[in-house]
Amino acid sequence: MRLNQVAPESGGSGNADLSVDQDKLGAIGSAAYALHGRLAKDGKHAEASTGEAATQLSGHGFLTGSAMSTVQRTWSSQLGTLLDACANISNHLDYSAASHAKEEQDIKAALAASRIDQYFK
After folding, report:
1. Cβ proximity of 35 and 85 under 8 Å
2. d(CA 36, CA 29)
3. Does residue 17 come out as left (phi exceeding 0), alpha (psi in the -120 to 50 range) or beta?
4. 20 to 30 A from 106, CA-CA: which of 53, 78, 113, 120?
5. In 3-state terms, what secondary structure has residue 121?
6. What are the CA-CA distances from residue 48 to residues 41, 66, 69 (Å)?
7. DSSP label at 7?
8. How far is CA 58 from CA 72, 74, 91, 108, in A?
9. 13-21 long-range contacts, Cβ below 8 Å, gap at least 24?
10. pTM to 2 decimals?
11. Which superkingdom, per the lineage (predicted)?
């Protein structure tokens, strides 16, 4: 079995460290949360009137009514997917920031404990 892959970029040192900037994670998470709030409100703005128009047009025999109904269902589905994605991003970044902060505290505690241990020998 062979998996296709992208060739590594040239010029890298190979000694890169993973670093997390809590402020950047927080800013991205906040933006995702704000986008979720706006989408939840504004994305459903015309849902009721579009549904009513589709029903009225279909009731009077216009093919546009069923097409409008299809557009409304598609929009609602895609809006739900986008809302879920924004919530997932926001929640994941909140979790990541908290997780990294806890790991940092655990590492500091382990280092402090190892320094104490050397005095007992």
Report:
1. no
2. 11
3. beta
4. 120
5. coil
6. 13, 15, 11
7. P
8. 14, 18, 41, 67
9. 20/96, 20/97, 20/100
10. 0.60
11. Bacteria
Task: Centre a 10 Å sphere on the Cβ of residue 20 and count the other Cβ atoms it contains.
Answer: 13
Note the residue count of the chain: 121
Handedness of CA 60, 65, 66, 69 (dihedral sign): negative
Collapsed DSSP state (helix, strand, coil) of residue 5: coil
Residue 100, token pair as written in the block: 């990294």
Task: State the average pLDDT over residues 39-58.
Answer: 90
DSSP string, 29-87: HHHHHHHHHHHHHHTTTTHHHHHHHHHHHHHTT-HHHHHHHHHHHHHHHHHHHHHHHHH
In the numeric block, which tokens belong to residue 34? 């704000």
Residue type for 105, please?
Q
The string of pLDDT tens digits covering residues 62-91 is 999 999 999 999 999 999 999 999 888 888
Q: Residue 73, Cα to own-chain centre: how many angstroms? A: 23
Q: Which residues contact 82 (CB under 8 A, 6 or more apart)?
A: 39, 43
- Report if residue 64 sits inside a domain: yes
Q: Count structural domains, the chain.
A: 1
Q: Which residue type, as a one-letter code, is found at position 50?
A: T
